[in-house]
Every structure is written in structure tokens, then in C-alpha cells.
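Issue: ligand-bound run for T5A - logging full I/O for the record.

Environment: standard queue, default settings, no custom constraints.

Inputs:
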Amino acid sequence: MRGKFITFEGPEGSGKTTQAGLLVTRLQEAGGEVLYAREPGGTPTGEAIRQILQYDKAGEPICPETEVLLFAASRAQLVRHVILPALEAGRHVVCDRFADSTTAYQGYGRGFPIEQMLTINDFAINGAQPDITLLLDVEVETGFQRIEKRHRNTSSTWDRIEREARVFHEKVRNGYLELARRWPSRFVIIDARGNPETVSDEIWSKVRDVLD
Ligand code: T5A
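Outputs:
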């Protein structure tokens, strides 16, 4: 039987990586085989693209059109080499960001036409639509306070997109909420302001509905 494809979306610092990890553990405890993936990245090609997109590894400014296509390229590779084979082998796939990130960040954030982003996404994903998309919603300010704390504790630096103005990140957050209204049967909005355990319990109750 085909596994379930579960994606996490949301603005910066909303807790996607934390919650994806907790969900993987819960799915495994429930007896499932699970694969965790992240975007951009998740394959050698995708991780190389991540270095360019996040940390300016190409050494030149990336134009917005290139940005769209690099995210799509990373995704195309991940879908064909990792996600679809895993789902077909009966494993659940938990993906930390997926195509909705392009619609939210490059569409609503950068201002590219939404329908154009959806067409590019369709080309990249080869029919791999998530069974459920968990949108972790949190105020931009709260997300940035969390990230700031992490950077302080780990001495890490702000990446290229984190450095965008707050108004950009507000557009992204509102864009996500718009996408959730457009596809209510796939999206579940999770209030991500609570502590990680409370948020994880709510996510688990929604994911169980999809597993049944
Ligand atoms: N992007 C990506 C695009 O523009 N277009 C695309 O198509 C795609 C795929 C990826 C960047 O690329 C952009 C979006 C991003 O800017 P990334 O490094 O993968 O960047 O970063 P993000 O996906 O944004 O992940 P973050 O690490 O910024 O945040 P998360 O994963 O949402 O949050 P998490 O779990 O790492 O937590 C952040 C901090 O908060 C704490 C954690 O311990 C951690 O320190 N935390 C909480 N604190 C309090 N309460 C809670 N409930 C907490 N949950 C976590």
C-alpha cells in the first residue's frame, strides 16, 4: 500500500523542523516506516542547490527568476529520486517544506503571478500531491524571536531569505493563509504558538485522520 505524503509549511521559525521530527517518531511508534526529507535539499543535487540559495555559494546575487527555478529544480530531483520511490514502497514521507513554499515565498512574497508558480510547481512535482499539509501558523515576530535565540545559542548567521524585510515575511504568512483557504481539504492550519508538545498533540490528531 502506498504511504502517506505529509508536508510541513509555514513562516520562518514556526517550528516545522521540530514538529516534523516529533511526527516521524510518532509515526514510527505507531509501526510505520517513515522517511524525512527537507527542502531545498534532500538529495546531493538539492543540497548543492541549498548552499547556493541559502548561503550565496555562487558568489553573485541570485535574480528572482533563478531563485524560483532553483527551488523547483531541487524539488524535481527530490520527488523523483526520493519521495515517489518511498511512497510507492509503502513508506510515509514527512517533508519539511514543499511546493507551497514556492507559491508562498516566490509568489506572494516576491510578487510573481500565483498561477505561474502553480504551473512551475506542477512541472516539478510530477503528480506528487501531499495527502495533508500542516500549516504551522505563527506571528512573524514570534518566529523571528525564536530564530534569533537559536542564532544566539548556536552562533549561526542569518541566511539569505531570513534577511528579507519583515514586510516580505508578512506577505508570506498571509499568502500561506490564502493557500489554506484555497485548498481546505488538504491544508490544516495549526496554531504554532503553544509549546512543542501541545502543538505535536494537535498535529498527531490531524495526521491520524489521514492514516485511518
Ligand atoms: N524557501 C523554501 C523558499 O523561498 N521557497 C521554496 O520553495 C522553499 C522550499 C529554507 C528557506 O528557503 C525558503 C524558505 C526558507 O527561508 P530553512 O533553513 O530550511 O530555509 O529554514 P526554515 O524552513 O524556514 O526553517 P527554520 O529553521 O527557520 O524554522 P522552523 O523549521 O519552522 O522551526 P524550528 O523547528 O527549526 O524552530 C526554530 C527555533 O524555535 C524553537 C526551536 O527549538 C528552534 O530553536 N521552537 C520553539 N520555541 C518555542 N515554542 C515552540 N513551539 C517552538 N518550536 C520550535
